[in-house]
Write a structure and sequence with these properties.
76 residues, mainly alpha, two-stranded antiparallel sheet, 4 helices, 2 strands, 54% helix
Amino acid sequence: MISPAQIRMARAGLGISVKVLAERSGVADSTIHRFEAGRGGMQTGTLERLQTALEAAGAIFTSADASGGPGVRLKA
């Protein structure tokens, strides 16, 4: 599962606001704000919708490995 920090990083890299992500994913912007701020969890299905929308926009989520923690990169 992706983290709040990864969502923020993906949005920043893609230049997507919370409002745009909310429209593209069908998740309320207040839910995204709350999760990104660390003020609550998120159901798996909701998190998957956010990840799908961000990946469709060009984000690639990376897992933690020996070289570092989880992160985000953009498609070339």
